[in-house]
Amino acid sequence: LLRRLPAILEQHAPAHRYAIITDSNVDHLYARDLAAALGAVPHCTVFTFEAGEASKSRRTWGIITDQMLDAGLGRDSVVLAVGGGVAGDLGGFIASTYLRGVPFVQVPTSLLAMIDSSVGGKTGVDTSRGKNLVGTFYQPTVVIIDASTLKTLTDRHVRAGAAEAVKHAAIADSDYFNWIESNSEAILDRDIDVLLELVIKSVNIKSRVVSDDETEQGKRAILNFGHTVGHALETSSRYDLLHGEAVAIGMIAEAELGVSLGITEESTPATLRSAVAALQLPVKRPSNLSPQVLHETIEFDKKARYGEPRFTLLEQIGRVSQAPDGHWTHRAPEAAIFEAFSHIM
Amino acid sequence: LLRRLPAILEQHAPAHRYAIITDSNVDHLYARDLAAALGAVPHCTVFTFEAGEASKSRRTWGIITDQMLDAGLGRDSVVLAVGGGVAGDLGGFIASTYLRGVPFVQVPTSLLAMIDSSVGGKTGVDTSRGKNLVGTFYQPTVVIIDASTLKTLTDRHVRAGAAEAVKHAAIADSDYFNWIESNSEAILDRDIDVLLELVIKSVNIKSRVVSDDETEQGKRAILNFGHTVGHALETSSRYDLLHGEAVAIGMIAEAELGVSLGITEESTPATLRSAVAALQLPVKRPSNLSPQVLHETIEFDKKARYGEPRFTLLEQIGRVSQAPDGHWTHRAPEAAIFEAFSHIM
Prior knowledge:
2 copies of one chain form a homodimer. Chain A is of the alpha/beta class. Chain A is 50% helix and 12% strand. In chain A, the strands form 3 sheets. A 5-stranded parallel sheet of chain A has the order 2-1-3-4-7, sandwiched between helices. Chain A has a two-stranded antiparallel ribbon with strand order 5-6. Chain A has a two-stranded antiparallel ribbon with strand order 8-9. In chain A, helix 5 runs parallel beside helix 9. The longest helix of chain A is centred in the middle third of the chain and has 21 residues. Chain A is globular.
């Protein structure tokens, strides 16, 4: 698909000028070639930020916005985010606020971005108070996924991306869950046909959930399975844990939480552990993170979002539990949360 | 209406918590009383910024966002902007990006904000490159206009607000235009019934135009009559000119431009001049602004928006001209632009 990018854009996102937003790794791997194929400056300009979560900030957002203004990009421009989740979230936030919004194209090059963050229209940046606290809902005009870019991804990032596929399966499709576990080796070996099938299956689940609830008023919250604990792990590890790794551990903790609350089938945590381990993902928290720190991080993180910590809980693999109050997330007593932590120690 | 604010919010924008965003002038005039009526912290918290256009910045946006996060406001909060155009634009941008968007209520207290900026969903902040270059389209849940707040407005701000009413009339309704001119004295005397009728007539025009084209892909551009030259005057005066004052002069310049391009009826500039003068608004640019500086500012401003300067031009009072290419704005040769400037010297 990337070889056909100019034609695809011509058809789906024609523009006077293109801005490619990418990070310092993807810049020379893919973005420069894509820019060359699209045409010289001023028709296409590349804006590069330092790779890493630290760039997902209001500061980088302001800097790139100013660079685009200085380059004279008008409202008849299109923003392309080329890269992983950071490029997509940051690029989307820039596109959604640049001159009150210009069209936006996602070109995810990491597995995580392909199956998860590029679909659904969540954009944003982090603040010192937490991840994604500032942002918009802003749908991309088109998402262009070329699985061949997975060749240049590190093994660790392939595994971390696959964690979100496990999540999609866990909340929506037990057959897919079994398929992932039996194809774990092929995924780790980067069998391109298997990866492509993984991407397609996951995007179908994600886009179905998002289409029903674009701005997360209700059922979209089921996509947060593993994420309440996962975010806390990710933040308190200071991003030593990749997002997908943190979600893998978080899913296990939240499955255990569901069991202890009598909501989740008892065999579910073991089934999850087995699938996560088959993908060589961690099943326990880093030893330097205490339960107290994790709990404080959850409290702080969730206070800013919902007023209290809430958890997406499974009934069983493939099915999420709806709380008696109609919500797709549950409250949990502090003791049960700490009990769940004991299973990832 | 302000006395009934708690009941109105209860019905139209119920929330767990309210954030009032206001400036240092309106804070003690209205915002504190409204906050007291809504309930004590944490139910309602006031966030105050220094009055003036300089606060419409990414910096203030970041500071207030962080204050709201620190105050623990979650997604079940509602943002109220109480004040003039700056409070509305800044408050709307905060609301649209806070935790990816929380509901937003406009409580405009200036004439300009009542008849223009509070309706239509444009939010944003300025950058050193120009006004409103960063922002979103984000509709308020409800706009609450209590004309009694106009009592505390300065005469100069009443006049400046009325300039946008002249604009609404000029682009859409010649009867309304005549009504404004014949009621100029009552407007300047702040006859509350006349002001209320002015607000209603203008909001009807504005909301009709915006409803047809929410994100300014096409016909919404007619609301920019007077604004291409007006923005340049406002920016290059370093905001010595109020927005409405700059628009008043800009409308005259753009009417003259339309005449010289053979698009606008020859009597139109004189008719506009007469209405503008009756409201004691300026009809000439400040003497320290040279035509060269104005032209450079237009070039810079518009380059960032559309790639080239474009102008909304009248056919006659009450009717806007559509360009042969289907656009509701026109290009103009440089010589014609300078010729138009000569009429506001």
